[in-house]
Amino acid sequence: MKYFAETDGERYECIIEARNGETFVVVNGIRYRADLRNVPGSASTTLLLDGRSFEFAVHRHEEGIDLSGAAGQFLVKVEDERTRAARDRAPAAAAPRGPRILKSVMPGIVREVLVKPGDAVVKGQPMLILEAMKMQNEIRADHDAIVKALLVEPGTAVEKGAALVELG
Amino acid sequence: MGIGSVAVFSEVDRLELHVRAADEAYPIGPPPPSQSYLRQETLLEVARRAGCDAVHPGYGFLSENASFALACEEAGLTFIGPKSASIAAAGDKLAARLAMKKAGVPVIPGSERPASGVESIRKAAERVGYPVVLKAVGGGGGKGIRVVRDPKELEAAFRRAASEAESAFGNAAVYVERYLERPRHIEFQVLADAHGGTVHIGERECSIQRRHQKLLEESPSPLLDGALRARMGEAAVKAARAVGYVNAGTVEFLVDRKGEFYFLEMNTRIQVEHPVTEMVYGLDLVRLQIRIAEGEKLPFRQQDLVPKGHAIEVRLTAEDPAAGFLPETGVVHSLRLPDGPGIRVDSHLYAGQRITPFYDPMIGKVIAWGPDRGVAIARLRRALLELRLVGVKSCAPLLLALLGDARFVRGEVDTFFLEEFVREGSWRRPPELAGLPGRLPAVIVAVLHAHARQGASRAVLPPEGGAASSPWLDAGRREAMR
Question: Which residues neighbour B229 within 8 Å (Cβ) at sequence distance 6 or greater?
Answer without folding.
Answer: B202, B203, B220, B221
